[in-house]
Design goal:
Blueprint: E1 2-13, E2 18-27, E3 30-35, E4 43-48, E5 52-56, E6 58-64, H1 75-81, E7 84-91, H2 94-103, E8 106-116, H3 129-141, E9 146-150, H4 158-170, E10 174-178, H5 189-199, E11 204-206, H6 221-233, E12 238-243, E13 250-251, E14 254-255, E15 258-259, H7 262-270, H8 277-286, E16 290-295, E17 298-302, H9 304-313, E18 319-321, H10 327-335, E19 347-349, E20 352-353, H11 360-369, H12 375-390, E21 406-410, E22 415-421, E23 424-428, E24 431-432, E25 436-441, H13 446-451, E26 455-458, H14 465-468
Helix pairs in contact: 3-4, 5-6, 6-10, 8-9
Amino acid sequence: MFDLIIKNGTVIDPENKIHGQRDIGIDGGKVVEVAEEINTNKGIKVLDAKGKTIVPGIIDMHVHTGFTGKGGQAAMSMLARAGTVTAMDCGGPLHEFYDFSINNGTGMNMICLQMIRPGWNISGIAPTKTEISELIDKSLDEGAIGMKLLGGHYPMTPEATQRVVEVANHKKAYVAFHVGTTKNGVGNFNSFKDAVDIAKGFSMDLVHVNSYCRGQVLGDPIEETLEALRILEDNPNIFSESYLSVFSGTPAKCSDGMPESNGVKNSLSMGGYEGTEKGLRQAILDGWASVVCHVGNDNLRLTGKEGIEYFDKEGTDVTCTFPVTPASTRFLLATQKAKSGRFIVDAISTDGGSIPRNFIVEKGTALVRMDMLTWEEFVTKTSINPAKIFGLKDKGHLGVGADADITILDGTSGRAYGAVCSGNIIMLDGVVLGKGTTVLTTELGVNAVKKRGLKAKVVDLESGWFYGGRPRI
């Protein structure tokens, strides 16, 4: 008997060279059989996916639960409804990540990086190697798989930033960088080039590449994007993702009349507003900036008077979004390949979660419908590549023995119809059914995860591309 049979869907599994109608038999959280016909009498539960497309579970390499105020309560529900099965919280902080994982889990797999923020969990903008080492050790012991540098928001010196990358690599801890330092802290194309120099052969995740190709330095987003693609192709030690939403997202808390995050100031300047609280308020009133408002199991964008009222109600401690990502940049970063045939930018992500832009399925499948990506390429960028970067050998495909992590797509609406995690249906037709959270962590963090009453699975970064090496194609 199978715990679950998924019937009559079109299965797309490039790793196993499947593209056609198949049934999938699941037992014990694993794929047990993939066949043209499985007798429904063998299933305890049967899910009819006729007319639907079945792909390996979506893996979003960049989301936020914490770092976004109380809106994090809705993050995992929003992700599940978007068809995401596994996601990495790219910055935590860990205490907020655990709070939401325990109280608001939807049955997903979650990974967490701990943020490094000067003045909060590290002394300042130029911490020593010893202090950095101690923070990384503490974060790994508490269940993070590595660290997130928030240079575009709260920059450190170039030297300290490089020390973080070096120490993280030495400890085989994941390290991601929202680019920016005290030299070029605004998160633009110059910051991007600085980040590549900082990596200097070390493994690094250079997050949401689209954020640095907005034409602020060279004057033309396309010129910056093409140059960024060339640089990334020449530096295979750097892993990357990009999102398909026009909207950015950044913490908008203000102190003494100024936004604390450089990201707000940067986005305001692109709209012609001064980088102050006064400028932000005017941008909200004008509709250039949106305030993310928490409502039940969802987060909405508010502008105008409603946006200002919520902004004041929360004491400015909100997330704001800005329409600053050019379409040309989003398209090129999602589709372009290296001479070897691999995608230059490894994955499509969202930088979403609690920020309302969880558009991997909605906008990614639009590229398929326009013949800009094949179905196999869509799966490569949304599941296969992320799984291989993290070393998740049982994810990213639907072969026998693989984790039964599955996303079911509705080709008519272009949206996710269902999501299955470890054989459990966590979302169906927009209704979240799953509960709890499985945290993917290193061996060092397993005890910390279990002490919080959460399930833990081990990630071995050395077996994946990040530290095992990107394959030569």
